[in-house]
TrEMBL record:
GO terms for molecular function: glycosyltransferase activity. Residues 8-146 form the Phosphoribosyltransferase domain. This is Pyrimidine operon attenuation protein/uracil phosphoribosyltransferase. InterPro entries: PRTase-like, PRTase_dom, PyrR_bifunctional. It holds the Pfam family Pribosyltran. PANTHER family: BIFUNCTIONAL PROTEIN PYRR (PTHR11608). The keyword Magnesium does not apply. The keyword Cell membrane does not apply. SUPFAM superfamilies: PRTase-like (SSF53271). Keywords: Glycosyltransferase, Transferase.
Amino acid sequence: MSNKRTLILDKEQIHQKSIRIAYQILEDNFEEESIVLVGIADRGYVFATRLQQILRDLAPQKSFELLKVTIAKTKRKLEASVDGSITIAENKVIVLVDDVLNSGRTLAYGLGMFLDVPLKKMRTAVLIDRSHHQFPLFSDYYGLKLSTILKEHVEVVLSEFDGEEDAAWLS
């Protein structure tokens, strides 16, 4: 296997994609007073935090709450926890946020946390959608849709979590 890495998004492009996703969230939910962003730990939560700040700047009259879901991604059954009360999502729109959508398993597990919560609607937002879905979940908002082969790996680097400049790499 090759050690070659190809830059697919740089810092500025990630910022631009984040702004575009925030606008799409607002346009899709223009009548909502409150939206709950649910970030999947770790990088999905960092991305959700960024989206929350952009949304607050674009629509300061609205409320954008944030929850962090930690999922045991390697387990075959749902093992997850939330850093707050999921009741804040009751009868609201929630946007499940992650950095990369590959098979859909992580987003499916994130969805599982809210099965017993009455929601207005649930949407998904990802920075990169790889289109290798094994679960019937798709990104409602995405920065980049990328067709890759299964052996390729997408790595997203976010400064708040990784301590390096933002970038997305294909290897």
